[in-house]
């Protein structure tokens, strides 16, 4: 049997807008992925859990305006642990389009701003994981 | 009645005759799923008795408004929800809004203030979020800077904080007023202080158990109103707006709001107060959503239901207690990042709903809010939206102009019945605290936002710019950025405060607070002394967390 794609979702920091991440979590499970919703956790804890749980994707949601800071912190932590290449990294939430390029430069693979259709996230994960396996 | 028979016959004939005229779709429904007929006639208002069910403005059952003259006497308060960066920067924005015609203020706080966390506390990543989502108010120094040069004796201020920090932030405000020689009795304003906001609307870091939040919320109501410490202050604002933003409908919004109000009323009665000691100061903050007529009918139904709840269950003597007073905010979740200027149009219609529904105060969202916090230009336009309704449309010149509309009256009655049923369901479950403990309310939220996602993605819910009339290659709106140095500035503010305050006095008072929390006495007297002595928000909420523990949320995906 083919292994299901495993996705770890979390919300960094103190920002309590939880609807977006929960909606994405539900949509990804409906699409046949295994999602682990990790709640409001530290970046350090998330990276450890991602390694232990052997997930393919780490996704996080930011509405507080601190998206760049959180993206930098997550990537730094992954680098320190030497596991950055093991995961596909996604960010969603409310932030300006002008910041998309910078988020990608920081090292986030998929950036999903307001108005995203969840099917696009599913497609992005499927295509990029396939590319990794074959590439 | 013979006339009704004639209408019934006429309607059947009309329906027969129009069969050759196809309609856009098979069925039409309101946002809350109420079937919408093709036509409303006197048949739909049969059984509605004008004097009993509608009545006159300012008179029971208050369907037509809580005051006799409504906007012919005085316009609603233009109360914009705003805050960003530092208290000084927010003060600049507030003064700008004051000059532009804003008549009341509402402080949007950042997520640290919401959660009761200091920027220099060992909470991971706290500093990233200082001033990003609102104004940082971590100590009395922040509140002093926020209201500097503003006439707080002549204006009303809403402090949008929740039970976790309501005692601390409200007492900071009261203490600042005292420093200026004002008495608490003179101050007008509101503390949001809603337990559902913190548990189902927005889930803050390290929240307390629902019963502890309810205790804190009731402490403020007791202190301000029942104990008459700040009799002009609204010590709570049941913020159904925040739950609605999660995706629930108009029926659930008001049903949850009423159930929440009842939980607070019962707690205060349990403490030995009489209904007349506090109920006249309970206020609401509702949403103005997409469905124009349903929203107007919702405000009318909510007023009737509050009257019914008071009359049947609590029987207060003070006539003020029967008036359902509310603030409205246009629906943030209806705004789009795509074609953001369209948000101005959305907001204008929603503002009109609030005015036709008889609101006491109104916040109109700014067009860039689906992208970032509002810039000066967008917030000015949002204020102008309200001023335009006041000055140019003439709609405020007559009280409740839609009364008597067959559709609006029928919808008001339908909503009234559905909301009451929903409210009773929560009651039967043991009330909102129990519905939170069991995870039932989470499930309601979760079902609602997943349904909304499916409706949007299938195109069932049409959203301009997102799933219809999409524009390719749109230029992104320049985003407003908050002060990147806010965290440093706020940490420095706390360092300076800690250097000059009497640490031993603060420590002794924190010890007193521990005792108060253990005995479950009202926290306000000692918290007021604490904030005056320079204790910080994180120190005060730290005691709550230490004594009562943190809530494990019953999440359901």
In short:
The complex is a heterodimer of chains A (135) and B (557). Helix content of chain A is 44%, strand content 22%.
Description:
The complex is a heterodimer of chains A (135) and B (557). Chain A is globular. Chain A contains 5 helices and 5 strands. A 5-stranded parallel sheet of chain A has the order 2-1-3-4-5, with helices on both faces. Chain A has 135 residues and is of the alpha/beta class. The model of chain A has no long low-confidence stretch (mean pLDDT 92). Chain A is 44% helix and 22% strand. Chain A has helices spanning 19-30, 43-52, 67-80, 100-106, 118-134; strands at 6-12, 34-41, 57-62, 88-93, 110-112. Chain B is an alpha/beta fold. Helices cover 48% and strands 7% of the residues of chain B. Chain B has a 9-stranded parallel sheet with strand order 5-4-3-2-1-9-8-7-6. In chain B, helix 6 (163-179) packs antiparallel against helix 20 and helix 11 packs parallel to helix 12 (342-356). The longest helix of chain B is centred in the middle third of the chain and has 23 residues, at 292-314. Chain B is globular and about 85 Å long. The termini of chain B are far apart.
Q: Largest protein interface?
A: A-B, 40 and 44 residues
Number of alpha- plus pi-helical segments of chain B = 20
State the shape of chain A.
globular
Which sheet architecture does the biggest sheet of chain B show?
Answer: 9 strands, parallel
Could you state the order of secondary-structure elements of chain A as H and E? EHEHEHEHEH
As laid out across the biggest beta sheet of chain A, the strand order is 2-1-3-4-5
Poorly predicted runs of 5 or more residues of chain A: none
- Shape assignment of chain B: globular
Class from secondary-structure proportions of chain A: alpha/beta
Helix content percent band of chain A: 40-55%
Strand percent estimate of chain A: 15-25%
Q: Uncertain segments of chain B of ≥5 residues (pLDDT<50)?
A: none
The number of E-state strands of chain B comes to: 9
């Amino acid at each position: 049997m083919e292994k299901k794609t495993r996705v770890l979702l979390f919300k960094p920091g103190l920002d309590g807008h939880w609807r977006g991440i929960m909606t994405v979590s539900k949509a990804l499970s409906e699409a046949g992925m295994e999602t682990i919703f990790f709640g409001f956790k530290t970046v350090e804890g998330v990276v450890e859990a991602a390694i232990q749980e052997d997930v393919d994707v780490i996704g996080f949601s930011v509405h507080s305006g601190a998206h760049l800071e959180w993206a930098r912190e997550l990537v730094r932590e992954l680098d320190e642990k030497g596991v950055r290449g093991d995961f596909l990294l996604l960010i969603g939430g409310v932030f300006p389009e002008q910041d998309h390029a910078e988020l990608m430069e920081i090292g986030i693979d998929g950036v999903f701003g307001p108005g995203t259709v969840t099917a696009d996230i599913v497609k992005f994960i499927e295509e990029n994981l396939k590319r990794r396996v074959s590439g | 009645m013979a006339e009704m028979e004639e209408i019934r016959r006429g309607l059947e004939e009309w329906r027969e005759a129009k069969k050759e005229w196809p309609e856009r779709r098979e069925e039409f429904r309101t946002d809350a799923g109420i079937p919408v007929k093709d036509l409303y006639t006197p048949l739909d208002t049969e059984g509605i008795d004008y004097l009993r069910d509608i009545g006159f403005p300012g008179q029971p059952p208050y369907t037509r408004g809580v005051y006799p003259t409504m906007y012919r006497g005085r316009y609603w308060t233009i109360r914009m929800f705003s805050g960003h960066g530092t208290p000084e920067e927010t003060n600049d924005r507030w003064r700008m809004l004051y000059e532009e015609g804003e008549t009341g203020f509402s402080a949007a706080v950042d997520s640290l203030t919401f959660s009761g966390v200091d920027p220099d506390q060992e909470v991971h990543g706290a500093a990233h979020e200082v001033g990003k989502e609102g104004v940082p108010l971590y100590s009395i120094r922040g509140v002093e800077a926020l209201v500097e040069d503003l006439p707080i004796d002549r204006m009303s201020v809403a402090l949008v904080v929740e039970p976790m920090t309501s005692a601390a932030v409200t007492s900071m405000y009261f203490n600042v007023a005292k420093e200026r020689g004002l008495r608490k009795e003179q101050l007008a304003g509101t503390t949001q202080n809603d337990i559902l906001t913190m548990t189902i609307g927005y889930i803050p870091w390290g929240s307390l158990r629902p019963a502890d939040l309810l205790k804190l919320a009731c402490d403020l109501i007791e202190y301000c109103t029942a104990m008459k410490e700040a009799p002009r202050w609204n010590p709570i604002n049941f913020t159904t707006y925040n739950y609605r933003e999660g995706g629930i409908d108009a029926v659930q919004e008001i049903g949850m709001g009423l159930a929440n109000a009842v939980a607070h009323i019962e707690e205060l009665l349990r403490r030995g107060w009489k209904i007349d000691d506090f109920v006249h100061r309970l206020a609401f903050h509702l949403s103005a959503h997409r469905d124009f007529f349903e929203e107007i009918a919702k405000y009318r139904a909510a007023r009737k239901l509050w009257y019914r709840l008071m009359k049947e269950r609590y029987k207060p003597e003070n006539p003020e207690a029967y008036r359902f007073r509310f603030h409205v905010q246009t629906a943030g979740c209806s705004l789009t990042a795509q074609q953001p200027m369209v948000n101005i149009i959305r907001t204008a219609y929603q503002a009109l709903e609030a005015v036709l529904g008889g609101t006491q105060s109104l916040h109109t969202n700014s067009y860039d809010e689906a992208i970032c916090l509002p810039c000066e230009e967008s917030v000015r336009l949002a204020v102008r939206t309200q001023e335009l309704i006041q000055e140019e449309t003439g709609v405020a010149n007559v009280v409740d102009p839609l009364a008597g509309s067959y559709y609006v009256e029928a919808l008001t009655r339908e909503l009234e019945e559905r909301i009451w049923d929903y409210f009773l369901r929560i009651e039967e479950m043991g009330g909102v605290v129990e519905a939170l403990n069991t995870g039932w309310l989470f499930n309601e939220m979760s079902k609602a936002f997943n349904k909304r996602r499916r409706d949007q993605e299938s195109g069932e819910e049409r959203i301009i710019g997102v799933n219809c009339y999409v524009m390719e290659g749109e230029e992104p709106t320049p985003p407003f950025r908050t002060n990147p140095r806010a965290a440093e500035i706020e940490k420095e503010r706390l360092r300076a405060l800690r250097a000059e305050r009497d640490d031993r006095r603060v420590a002794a008072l924190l010890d007193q607070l521990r005792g108060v929390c253990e005995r479950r006495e009202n926290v306000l007297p000692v918290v007021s002394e604490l904030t005056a002595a320079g204790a910080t928000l994180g120190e005060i909420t730290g005691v709550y967390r230490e004594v009562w523990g943190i809530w494990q949320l019953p999440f359901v995906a």
